[in-house]
Design brief:
The chain folds into 2 domains: about 1-65 and about 150-223, P-loop containing nucleotide triphosphate hydrolases (Rossmann fold, 3-Layer(aba) Sandwich); about 75-145, no CATH class. Helices cover about 35% and strands about 25% of the residues. The protein has helices at about 45-50, 75-80, 85-90, 105-115, 130-145, 160-180, 190-195, 215-220; strands at about 1-10, 20-30, 30-35, 60, 70, 150-155, 180-185, 200-205, 205-210. The protein is α/β, with parallel strands linked by helices and about 220 residues long. α4 (about 105-115) crosses α5. The chain is globular, with a radius of gyration of 17 Å. A 6-stranded mixed β-sheet has the order 5-6-7-3-8-9, sandwiched between helices. A 3-stranded antiparallel β-sheet has the order 2-1-4, covered by helices on one side.
Length: about 220
Amino acid sequence: MDLIQIKDLNYSYPTKKNTLKHINLKVKKSSFTCIVGENGSGKSTLLKCILGLNNGYSGEIIKPTKIGYLPQKSKIQTNFPATIEEVVLSGTISNNIKSIFYKKEDKENAMHIMNKMGIADIKNKCFADLSGGQQQRVLIARALCATKEIIVLDEPTNGLDPIIANQIYELLNKLKKKENITILMVSHDIERALKYADKVIELIDGEIVYDGNPENFKLGGDK
């Protein structure tokens, strides 16, 4: 079953031409898909189109109603003055549009997810005081509060120590295998992407030049 289908997607920013050109791709349910490519190749732009953050594209995007999202880290995120529990719970906001209060089931779900992420015992710590790896675990937990179906991540291991980066990939792989959560990730880390992904998509200048399994990508096949 395909969770996301994109048909002939074209998108341009006002100052650029043909940022994304004739993008056709599918993301299968319970898969781990990595989008790779050089800076400026259109990876993050493609994610934003899928998430509905970029409007004005042509073509068709078929996707779930709710998608958990972990954007690239920013100083605002890193220095956010809130507890771990508050950050994780904020992932349920889209489910509580009519209320400013969290429901009992939202709090129970957040605690369940924090336990899985190994951060429940430090839930009252300030997010800004955490290490980079811990912050990413919190933000993944936040994304899972939005939906248990699919999470989309933009460079989640950027700037992390290699050991911590491995742990994040292992965690995502575990979510896919044990929780059947679909993972769609943009990554500059091709080596780890090839190790963990079921499918690799490579973008060059806004066009897909490879869409297939990691084994063939390693061998340079079908490009």
